[in-house]
Structures are given as C-alpha cells and as structure tokens.
Please model this.
Amino acid sequence: MCGIVGYVGKRQAAPILIDGLYQLEYRGYDSVGIAVSDGNSLEIVKKTGRVREIEGARGLRGTLGIGHTRWATHGGINVENAHPHTYQRITLVHNGIIENAQKLKQDLLQRGEIFSSETDSEVIAHLIADAYRGDLLSAVMESCARLDGSYALVVFCEDEPRKLVCARMRSPLVVGTGKGGAVVASDLSAVAEKDATLYSLNDGEFAQLSETEIDFYRSSGDKINKFPIAFDLEEGNSDLKGYRHYMRKEIDEIPDVLRLSRQKFDENFRNSDFCKVLCQTEYIHIIACGTAYHSGLCAKTAIERICRIPVEVHVASEFRDSDPILQSGTLVIAISQSGETADTIAAVRLAKRKGAYIAAVVNVKYSSLTRLADTVLYTQAGREVAVAATKSFNAQLMTLYSFAEALAAVKGRRAPSLNGFERKALRTISLSESVQSWVPYFVGAKSAYFIGRGEDMCTALEGSLKLKEISYLPSEGYAAGELKHGTLALIEPYTPVVAIVTRREIAQKTMNAVHEAYSRGATIFLVTCFEEYCGMDEVKASVLIPKCPPVFSPVLSAIPLQLLAYYTSVARGNDPDKPRNLAKSVTVE
Ligand code: AGP
Model:
C-alpha cells in the first residue's frame, strides 16, 4: 500500500506534505514525490527511496499540494513510476490497485495517448483529463465509474488551482480541516492535530476541498452530510523517545498493552450484547493474515482447550477464494492490526454474504474492518509504527484470550487465570535481552528453524516470520514432531534451531526433536519455563520465561523471539522498522 497526503490553505504546502509523508512512510517507502501549485505554476519533485530524499523540496512555493510515498505494485521502483502522476492539466496521487488498468490503457494507447510510466495510477490521470470539461469533480466521478479495483485518490487540475478532489474505494482516506486550510491523508497520523475536524470517506464517496470549504458527494453527484470522527491525539502520534528504533520501543510497551487490552475487553464486553451472540456460538472461523494469522492459531488452541468449541483458522487470501461452509451458529473472528488488509476485508465480505456474524479484533480505530464488523474487540496496542508487528501481536493474544475466558464463562466452563501477565511480560523482556548473545549464530547462518508443539508451534511460526521479515534470513517455523518427516534433511552443522517448550506434558517430545537436530550438528536455543532443560549439554543458550498457564504462554514466549529478530536485523545492517519490500498494512490484493 502507499501513503497519500494533500493540502490546500493559507500555509505553504510543501512542509505540510513532507511532514505528513514522514508519518505515512510506514505504509510504503520505495519512492516519494510531491506536487505544489502557487496558482500559476506546478512544481513536481519525485525521487526513489525514503521521504528524506525530497527534503530539498521543502522550500517549494505554493499553498496547494499533494504528496505520495509508494509501495510498488504495478511498475518497478524508479522515478517515472513514482507519484504524483500528471497528464495534461491533471495531477494525482493514488493508493490502491486498478484491476482493469491494462484494458483501459490499451484503449488509450490506441487513441494515441502517450504514457510516461508503467503504473495503473497514470491511467486514471489520463481518464480524468479526457473526461474534463471544466468541472474536476464531475470528471473524477465519471472516470471512477470506469475503474475496477481499489483506489484512494487526490486529484488536482491546473484550471481549478484552489481545489482538490478526493475519491475512495476500498483504500482508506481521511479528509478534514486543519493547518489553516483543508487536509487529506491515508490515515489520521498525517493530519491529526488539536483543532482538526476530520472525516473518514466511505467507499464510493467523493470530497471536494478548498481553503474554506469541504463538500462530500455520492457517485450520483448528490451532496451528503458526514459526521466528524473522534480521535485521540495521543494515539496518532508516536515518537522514538530515545530509542534507536520503533520496534525496540514497541516491544517495551508490551506490558502496558497487555494490561490495557484486557481492561478494555472487560469494559466492552460488559457493556455489549456480544454475550448473547456467544450463547448461540457453536463454531468459530478465524480469518487473518501474517502475524494476525498466527495470533488466530494461538487463539484456536486456547478456545478449543478451554471452551470445547471447534475453531478453524484461515489465511484470508485463501478463505476469500474458497466456498466456505458456515453453519448456523457460526461466529467469524477477523483479526487485523490495521483493519485495512485487503485480503482480510474481502474474506469478511464473503463471510457476511454467507450470513455469518463478524467480530473484528482490530487495533486502528475507524479502519475499514471496524465498519464491516458486527462487533469490534479493540486491542489497545496504540500506534504501531514498525512494519514488524510486535506489541500488536501480544495485544491480539490478550484480547483473544480474554474472549476465550468470556466464552468459557458463557458455556459454563472455567479458563485458567489471565492475571499477572503485565508483570510477567516485564520480567520476560528483561530476561530476553540475553538473546543478544545468540545473534552471532544467526547473522551468518544460511537458514534458521523454530520448532514447538501445540501453542508453542504457533509461537514458532511467529518467531520465524519476525526473523525473516526484518533480517531477511531464510527461516521456517515448524511443528517439532514434523521435523523428522523431511525438514530434518536441511539441518547441517551450526544450523540454528530455536525450540519453544512451555507445556509440561509434551515437553519431552519437543526435546526429542531437539536431540534429533542436535545430533546432526544444529546449534540449539531454548525458550522455556522449565529450568531443568536450560542446563542440558545440547542447549547452547536459553531464555527461562516466567511460568504461566501453557495455553496462554505465547503472550510471553513470543517476546524473546521478537527481540532475537530485532537484534539480528540490526546486526545485519538492516532497518528493522522499514524492512525491504514490505509495508505496514497491505491494502492491495
Ligand atoms: C507482521 O509482522 C507483518 N507486518 C504482516 O504479516 C502483518 O501481520 C499482516 O500484513 C497483517 O496485517 P494486519 O494485522 O494489519 O491485517
């Protein structure tokens, strides 16, 4: 996905755009650009790389402008494909994917129109220019009617130099007043400020912004009234507070996040009629991607063990193309930190069409998923800037475990205690600093393996994803019992293998897999709550985490793995906050 920003008002636009793009950079950072107009001329600066590459454009003169930080989808990473895109008198920035772009482009090429990029976004600029007959809003509406796919657009026309027109279809867009004029951005972080009045555009809606006015429209051209969104300034802002990277800071925030997430769940649950839904719940389907999928797997082990309700966990991109069987009495839980992941949203739309009740576990307020769900169980992770999910994962677990506890109560069963995790997490973070001594065994490794059984296997999957996505080290999370059925062939001398062991009754079986790997030369690392295993000859190093109910142990056992990934990434010279090829939320399919 990409980050887009726009401004029209009394102040110089360039600094507002660039500062806004820094806040949106976590959404994509392959290339960056701004276009600024002083009413007579339009200046465009575009570069590959991070927002800092256009600091030289901060002095551009003009009180209207648009900006974009890109995560490449159609077209490689180069200046030509960077936004803003211009055709004739039209300039725009776009976040999303236009699925019929090639067909549209072929028609335009046959009419002799020349393109300067490979992007689908430039096609939109051509459509609007061709449709323009003196009214930008009408031209944008007419063009959007021809688009299949997703878009958040901010469009400028040199013949109407004091206006911006915005359009939204399945890519988020916030518009409002602020900074002495009107603002638009992909999310609150770029525009939230004390005196701002901000609105969230819904799918199929348009907005026309000028220095003094904001008007909202449906695609029919009818004007609509919208209510502003309430936002918490604290949530929108996030500075490093002396840390070297957001990821390390966000891991330190986990104890607070666990306390707040459990507290918020209790408050919400008591005040909602969600309890009635749980009384009728006989089956649960969980839908998510990436780390959120792993928290769904952890939730499955907890819900099935505690509540004896069958749970299926689906990768959203697979679920959305399937023809799922959702019996009556089915509850669908969609998990998403951003609430904007396109695959998860598409999967939820499918489940809704099949009549399922949707509960969403979401971190970002007012995100698209919150508007689709019947009930929202907000995690309280606060803004998570690092692309690699850490505190939001632990927050999802605490919210899902609280849900399991509530469901158990409704079903007349008892869950193990969820108390004391804030303190246990604080201690685990401190104990996990020792993983820095593990890093030399990972930095130069060809590959790494994470193994566990039951909930420990779910944690192993998450530990492996963390290491892969920020250190770029090939890694695999695996069921410990499966290792001997093939993957063991990949174990060579010094291959690092991390075993997670938190459930007494299956601990020895995981240790059997450890012995099998060790006897083939692997270097063994342990995350466990059983001290007796830490001193074994086979174990190079270990983190002894505080004891807790095994079914909830991923809340703690993930922490040393998060820190291992972080320190390995830094040791390999990477930026753990903005890993290559990735973005914080994938709003494209
Ligand atoms: C996690 O570290 C990744 N950044 C990624 O897998 C992420 O969890 C996934 O894209 C889902 O995002 P969401 O929770 O915002 O839906």
User: Anything to note?
Assistant: The pocket of 2-deoxy-2-amino glucitol-6-phosphate is lined by residues 289-292, 336-338, 341, 344, 387-389, 469, 585-586 (CB under 6 Å).
